[in-house]
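Bit of a strange request maybe. I'm writing a small parser for structure token strings and I need a real example to test against, not something I typed by hand. Could someone generate the tokens for this chain?
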Amino acid sequence: MSSSVSPNSTFLRSDPTPTQWAVSTGLVDYPDAVSAMEARAAEIADGQAGELVWLLEHPPLYTAGISAKGGDLLAPNRFPVFESARGGQYTYHGPGQRVAYVMLDLRERGRDVHAFVAALEAWVISALSQFNVEGQIKPGRVGVWVDRKAPGVPTKEDKIAAIGVKLRRWVSFHGISLNIEPDLSHFDGIVPCGIREHGVTSLVDLGLPVTMDEADAALRSGFETIFGPTQEARPPL
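Reply from user aminoacidic:
Good idea to test on real output. This should exercise your parser:
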């Protein structure tokens, strides 16, 4: 099932102002990133700053969204665990995974939360298509999935991107995480997003030697297709 959001979505801004696009090098500590992201979202809501998409990598860690269930944290002492204001359940972040924090002003983009989540899914699907990967959304499951098919074997559905967002005063924060080349064994310490029946994959796990720079270029192109133009900016940290 593909996303139905089109380039003519209400998530194009009501004016042509580009969204700032920033990329951090190295690993960014999670608490510092959250503080910077929340501060920027507040500035956007107050009209003191423009929209921002911030791409980064974190050290290995688990986050617990507002719907997290304690029994889904299988290895509580493996990595640091942080509570998060975003929607969703437990998620892993770590090197080789591209996290994109998305600070958009939905007052300029239609004020429709469900359409916003669909637009985020469509963005990831558009980026994956540039590597000939068919990303899909599955009923009842947030995020983007791929079907793993092999002769004589039942189709396996693996998650390649997670989505978890929060809105405050109609400005979004948190966002998406796309698996490029993380250590997939690190996901074993949680039940990712509370889903036990399916696995997790990455672009490299699918046999695609994609670099982080190549993934970033695909994400930027896909974002512009769904949300409009971008311009380079300094990261908040």
